[in-house]
Amino acid sequence: MNTIFYFEVRRNTKHWLTYCIALILIFLGIFCGNQFNLSVGEGIYLNSPYTIGFMTGMLSLSIIFFATIYALQLLFKEQDSGFDVVLFSFPLSKQAYLKGKFLNYFLQTFLSFSFLMIGFIIGQSLRTGSEMQNGFNIIHYLYPLFIFGLINTFLVCSFLFL
C-alpha cells in the first residue's frame, strides 16, 4: 500500500490520545443510544429500522465536526514540524503523498463515526421496556452506518481535503 498511509496510521495508533478519544466517542454513543426517544406513532419501536436510520442520520452530522478537527490537525502538522521543507527531497510523487494523506484522513474520520455508532448500539441494547422491539438485528445498524456514515464521510472529507 502507500508508505505515507502506513506512517500516519502507525503514528496515530501510538498516541494515547487516540484511544482516549475512541473511548469518549463510545461513551457518547452509549449516552445517545440510551437516552434517545423518538415517538412518531403507534407501533414504531425505538430499535426499529426507521428509528435507527433516523438517529444514524442525525449522528452523521457529527462527521462534519470530526472531519474539521482532523483537517486542521492534518493541515498544520507538517508546517509546525518543518516537514514541508524536507518533503520535497523525498522521492514521492504528489499523487502518492495525497493518496496516503487522504486515506488516513478518511479512515480516521470514518472510524470516529464508527466508534460513536458502536456506542449507540450498546446504548440501544441496554434499554428495556415496552418501547423496545424484541430481538436484535445488526443489519438495522450496519446499513445506515454504511449509507449515512460512509457516503457522508467521503463527501465531507473530499470537500475539506480539496
Tell me about this structure.
This protein has 162 residues and is mainly α. It has one domain (3-35, 44-161). 76% of the residues lie in helices and 0% in strands. It contains seven helices and no strands. It has helices at residues 3-13, 16-35, 49-59, 62-81, 83-87, 94-126, 139-161.
Task: Provide keyphrases for this structure.
mainly alpha, 7 helices, 162 residues
**Classification by helices and strands:** mainly alpha
What does the average pLDDT come to?
84
The shape, in one word, is elongated
Helical region count?
A: 7
Q: Using only CA atoms, what is the Rg?
A: 19 Å
Taken together, the total number of domains comes to 1
**Mind describing the biggest β-sheet?**
none
**Cα-to-Cα separation, first versus last residue:** 22 Å
Q: In which range does the helix fraction lie?
A: over 70%
Order of helices and strands: HHHHHHH
Strand content: under 5%
Tally of DSSP β-strands: 0
User: What are the low-pLDDT stretches, counting only 5+ consecutive residues below 50?
Assistant: none
